[in-house]
Amino acid sequence: MTLRPLFPLLAAASLAACAGGPPPEIATPTPELPQEFLFATGVDERASLAALLPSDDPAFIALSRQALANSPTLGEALARIEQARAGAARAGAERLPNVSADASVVRSRTNIGTFPENAPFELDLDQTNYAANINARWDPDIFGALRTQERAAILRVDAAKAGASAVRLALITEIAATVIDWRTLANRMDELRSDRDAAVELSRLAAVREDAGIAPGFDRVRAESAAAASRSRLAALASERNRLAGRMVTLTAQPLPEVLAALTSEAGTPSMPDAPATLPSALLNNRPDVVQAAANLAAADADLAATARRRFPRFDLSAAIGLLAFNPSEIFDEDSIVGALAASVVGPLLDFGRLEAEIDGAAAGKKAAFEAYRGAVFTALGDAETAYGLVTSGDAEAQAAVEERDSAQRAARLANDRYEAGLADFLTVLEARRSADASGERAAAAIGRARRARVVLWQAVGGDAAGGDQETNRSISQ
Q: How far is CA 1 from CA 9, 155, 339, 342, in A?
């Protein structure tokens, strides 16, 4: 057997192999993180991340369940996963043989002028071909280009899953924060109603004293002004309440009556759980945005490898077997069987920089993915540091605001008693009342900010570190 027919293929493969080479090296070191969070002071080793959510609030439970089931944003993210899975399935199928079948009937007429005038055979100018074929083609992927493309597609499925987890995390966080804001707003409105009622009572008392001729009419006017100020602030908070309800409609994809029914449900005494301890390095595994960025980086690396392997020759094996006859009655005869077997190799020789430009583009894509990964890591680090700081400062603010409220209310009661006994003037009572009124609303707002800071911390560290979003979803569904 002579090898001479194979020389052109071997020469093409050799020349193409000369263009081959490894992809450019791009360093992608894991960012160095500190050993601990600087602002994580006063943390409890036994505390749980899941306890940071208002899981004892029936409004949060109901609205979270509805959002996880109906949110368009989350539904879109889940559809992205299915899209990525379809892409991975297609990439995997490219490594398998492609088999197709066809059948045809061709009627043709030949011009007699194409033959010599005295042809020694009988001419049949009209001819009908009946054919049926099975064709197969397979790329053995000797240099692994298809394999790396499939790996990139699978990594994009992981990225899509992490993206959906990030959407779920943000959705639960936003609902928890909105529920806390709603409860805080209700507490502030209760304080303002108490302020208004106290101002009305002062106005009534001032009117009585005015009628008795023992106090000027100006005292009653000032008391009525204080009551009007409380009513004005109540109206402003009602507007904010409407905004929160509309926001919840967007988050849960539920009509407003159902949202209001959940938000107006009774809630117990809110808890103030301690901030749990966690490590900065845990962000790399717990934060969905960091996991997604890492998967995108790995996919970009596979894309670069696949592009670089296009420098190597590509082998293609094909085969066909079929039936060809010129009469329908002869199509299944043994003589009608036809077939072909072929092997080919294709490799780049002179493309004038086209492939190198694609490799450079893929390398730049990997660099961009690495910088995005670094950005996600340090964004997570900054978010966690900020969240721990918010918890610490929020607790300090809430404690100081509560102490101020209690002190101001005692002073207001004392001033009122002295006024009724004739030992203090009305201006002293009014100033003490104003201070107590403002301190009550400030305390309610400070407590709400401290509770909200815990939800921010839960999101910043990536949700429940022990069980992830699945554990949160399980508790909500229960």
A: 16, 47, 22, 18
Q: Which of 46, 30, 28 is nearest to 381 (CA)?
A: 30
Alpha-carbon torsion, ordered 139, 143, 144, 149, to 10 deg: -80
pLDDT in tens, 140-159: 988 888 999 999 999 999 99
Q: Please tell me the distance from the alpha carbon of residue 233 to that of residue 440, in angstroms, as a whole number.
A: 13
210 close to 474: Cβ distance less than 8 angstroms:
no
Please tell me the total count of domains within the chain: 1
pLDDT tens for residues 317-368? Answer: 888 888 888 777 777 777 788 888 888 888 888 778 888 898 989 999 999 9
Range of the domain at 75: 32-97+144-315+359-477
CATH of the domain at 399: 1.20.1600.10
Residue at 184 is within a domain: yes
For residues 49 and 466, give the distance between their C-alpha atoms in angstroms, rounded to a whole number.
8
Q: Do the domain assignments include residue 133?
A: no
3-state SS record for 282-298: HHHHHCHHHHHHHHHHH
261/34 Cα distance (integer angstroms): 46
**pLDDT tens digits for range 33-47:** 898 888 888 787 778
State the average pLDDT over residues 281-297.
93
Q: Could you tell me if residue 134 is inside a domain?
A: no
Strands of the sheet containing 337-346, edge to edge, are 98-109, 126-138, 314-325, 337-346
Other beta carbons within 10 Å of 306: 21
Please check the confidence at residue 14 and state whether its pLDDT lies above 60: no
The pTM of the full predicted model, rounded to 2 decimals, is: 0.81
Task: Determine which helix (DSSP H) or strand (DSSP E) holds 435, and give its type and residue range.
Answer: helix 426-460
Asked if residue 85 is part of any domain, the answer here is yes
